[in-house]
Amino acid sequence: MKKQKPKLAVWKFASCDGCQLSLLDCEDHLLAVADRVDIAYFPEATRAVVKGPYDLSLVEGSVTTPHDEERIHQVRRASRLLVTIGACATAGGIQGLRNFKDVKEFTTIVYASPQYIETLKKSTPISDHVRVDFELWGCPINKSQLLEVISAFLYRRKPNIPAHSVCIECKLRETVCVMVAHGTPCLGPVTHAGCGAICPSYHRGCYGCFGPKETPNTASLSSWLVRLGMKNDAILRVFRTFNANAEAFRKESQAHED
After folding, report:
1. Count of CB atoms situated within 10 Å of the CB of 34
2. 7-154 architecture in CATH?
3. Beta-carbon neighbour count of residue 241 at 10 Å?
4. How does pLDDT run across 217-258, given as a tens digit for each residue?
5. Do 95 and 119 form a contact (C-beta atoms < 8 A)?
6. Residue ranges covered by each domain of the chain
7. How far apart are CA 40 and CA 10, in angstroms?
């Protein structure tokens, strides 16, 4: 009897689709993955829908509406393993900036009939609502890391995703530290590796696209940013980008509010 392939599902919540596109960008590698799994649900790639339950679900996007708040529980119940991919799913995404303001005020200004808008006060990561088996950070995610995660779960092992900072990536590619050499503000010391230190390699500071690394010392970094001439409002802004709602970045930005 032919062994049934594991079922893979890819789900979208509030997001830009960039992380799903990272999977499609894997091209030949994706074909190898497709040969090992049954892509049961992936609207970005195919109209075909195979009924669950699913062995592995990849979830992109944050929870921003009452409907999505209910739907993520349905996804969790239908999934043996659930992996969140990208800044939106792991930290609330750029839309997490709403968490620091009054959403009702936004809807009143933007929409002619705000009473028809159903939205939550905050944009929250998937882990705030259901159990998550693994989080893959990034905006967008690193496609090689994504393939590693899929491979790891197919073979029932722990994903080999480095936990070090972007600073280590700079050293690995022999990139001169932009903070030390040029006095350029950089979030590299507190940001999770995964981008290959792209921005510092072009003499620009890290923007924190991959979110906080494990045990980041954001207070220490902020003290160095002050020495580089940054004011409180500027430090607040550098921590409020793609991963503004990630706990370490959120707390550090709040520490610099007037």
Report:
1. 15
2. 3-Layer(aba) Sandwich (3.40)
3. 18
4. 999 999 999 999 999 999 999 999 999 999 999 999 999 997
5. no
6. 7-154, 166-254
7. 8
Q: Is 142 in contact with 97 (CB distance < 8 Å)? A: no
Phi, psi of 90 (to 5 degrees): -95, -25
Strand partners, 12: 60
Q: Which residues of the chain have pLDDT under 50?
A: none
Give Cα 180 to chain centroid, integer Å.
Answer: 28
Residue for token pair 């280590």: 168
Per-residue confidence (pLDDT) for residue 31, from 0 to 100: 73
| Reported pTM | 0.93
The span from the CA of 238 to the CA of 232, in Å, is 10
Of 14, 17, 19, which Cα lies nearest the Cα of 61?
14
Name the DSSP letter for residue 12. E
Task: Check residue 95 and report its DSSP letter.
Answer: G
Phi, psi of 37 (to 5 degrees): -130, 165
pLDDT at residue 1, as a whole number: 52
Question: Contact at 8 Å (CB) between 49 and 19?
Answer: no
What pLDDT is attached to residue 29? 75
Tokens standing for residue 37: 């799994």
